[in-house]
Amino acid sequence: MNVIINIIKQNAAGFFAGAVTTMEVALLGTIIGSCIGLLIGVVKTIPIKKTDGFVKRVVFKIINTVLTVYIEIFRGTPMIIQAVIIFYGAAQLFGIHMDFLFAGIFIVSINTGAYMSEIVRGGINSIDNGQFEAAHAIGMSHGQTMFNIILPQTIRNILPATSNEFVINIKDTAVLNVIGLSELFFKTKGIYGKNYLYYQTAIIACAIYFILTFATTRILRLLERKFRGSESYAVVSSQKKSQDDMNTENTKES
Question: What's the rounded Cα separation, in Å, for the pair 199 and 208?
Fold first, then answer.
């Protein structure tokens, strides 16, 4: 135990800097990836009718094919391989030398976007078709229906899955050490590379990861409850209506 305490005292700044970078990449990557997934999920649910023009049908067919290929590739390959190909491939093939932090956020974002697109698509498909039909019946376009009726419900429904994706990203940032990003695991490797106390240093990193994910999970659950609203809404509304009716009757009698 004393060894672990000494490691923490001597390397607290390194552990803290790594944890901050880990959270920064995970948070921004999840936010950007969720936006990508939301956009793709909406595009993939746009209905294509036989009455639509030939050009429109061809364009949407190409777009859907490209998006499907993107989703399948990034869902079907490890993030560590994606990081190597994107970071080193961009430098060797196109002469693009990305900043480590930018590269980390970019890789996590496009990886998260592939997963979130399927989550969003599932959330949209879970909404009752009657709501689409009712909106179209009163003259709303598909875009108006999506942004005014469907997406608000979808976002609320997919919050648990989005929170889970954020927690996964906190842990998965560890693979970005392969491109030299100074996240928590990269800092941990540097520390036990100097002190040769491998498992003791790893225990500290494990504890930090646990604290980050545990705290994040609890905070996100509070947000989910807030978005769900009160479970006794109907009862409260009914009681309020009854009280209003009684007040109205008393006013008339007066």
Answer: 14
Owner of token pair 């889970």: 164
End-to-end CA distance of the chain: 78
Tens-place pLDDT, residues 239-252: 555 555 555 555 55
Residues in the chain: 254
Q: What angle (nearest 5°) sits at the alpha carbon of residue 118, between those of residues 114 and 122?
A: 165
- Any alpha helices (H) in the chain, and if so which ranges? 2-44, 54-76, 79-94, 100-125, 129-137, 142-145, 151-157, 159-172, 184-195, 198-228, 233-253
The CA-atom distances, in angstroms, between 97 and each of 74, 80, 87, 175, 178 are 22, 18, 8, 19, 15
pLDDT tens per residue, range 183-205 = 999 999 999 999 999 999 999 99
Angle 122-128-134 from CA coordinates, rounded to 5°: 130
Two structure tokens written together for 243:
């009280």
Which two tokens mark 180? 């030299």
